């Protein structure tokens, strides 16, 4: 399918998802969505009928305490719900993903050279339509730079990533998060039907270093996807190691440890 048509279809789906649903139809519609995708309705904060559109339900908030943040200050916590797609080292400027597919770090984060990432590590986590779609910070930090990057809207399902380049081709937002230990990079990758990504406090399309960095506490909400997608978290050399026992294809939840600080 040509990219313009794919993009147009994704935009159309987004437009439909924003259409207001009559109140009596909301709960049945969202229950049907949950049955089809496996979404857990027991943890949704608001009554189903309080979500005016399917798009609003996609970015539903969770009940207080549904995603506790690991209290150990030596752990780096997962910023999303999803499934681990890849755990890999950063070598010779590339990430080596599943099935041997490699990605240029420079291309992925928006054409910037970040020598500190050489020798570091990365986590790739896939969010399916069933998952909570809000993205939180893995550590107390300041958002100091953002790059909004145009691109395609291919699916980011694991079976698609295994056979074609997607992560550095799709629309994405690259965020530099400065912590007390140094900077991490969090890349939000758009996908089919997911052309919209929102970062709290940041106008869409903002590029470059922020004149006034935005502070976030550990585990605070940072951004959101419209429907499912993928995030790539990159840590510089000497910053952290993978959490012992963490494996590719493993389901993970926001707030659980995915790394330990070095």
Overall description:
The protein has helices at 3-17, 23-37, 54-58, 105-108, 158-161; strands at residues 75-77, 82-91, 94-96, 102-104, 121-126, 134-136, 141-149, 172-179, 182-189, 197-199, 208-216, 221-225, 230-235, 240-242, 251-252, 257-261. By secondary structure, it is α+β, with helices and mostly antiparallel strands. The model has no long low-confidence stretch (mean pLDDT 90).
Q: Quick check: average pLDDT?
A: 90
Total number of distinct structural domains: 2
Q: Please give the count of helices.
A: 5
**Gyration radius from CA atoms, angstroms:** 18 Å
**Shape category:** globular
Structural class: alpha+beta
Largest sheet: 10 strands, antiparallel
For the record, give the distance between the C-alpha atoms at the N and C termini, rounded to a whole number: 45 Å
Helical content stands at 10-25%
Number of strands: 16
Secondary-structure element order, as H and E? HHHEEEEHEEEHEEEEEEEEE
Q: In what range is the share of β-strand residues?
A: 25-35%
Oligomer: single chain
Low confidence ranges: none
Short recap of the structure:
With 262 residues, the chain is α+β, with helices and mostly antiparallel strands. The protein has helices at 3-17, 23-37, 54-58, 105-108, 158-161; strands at residues 75-77, 82-91, 94-96, 102-104, 121-126, 134-136, 141-149, 172-179, 182-189, 197-199, 208-216, 221-225, 230-235, 240-242, 251-252, 257-261. The strands form 3 sheets. Strands 2, 3, 4, 5, 7, 8, 9, 11, 13 and 15 form a 10-stranded antiparallel β-sheet that branches.
Keywords:
5 helices, three-stranded antiparallel sheet, ten-stranded antiparallel sheet, 262 residues, 2 domains, globular, alpha+beta, 16 strands
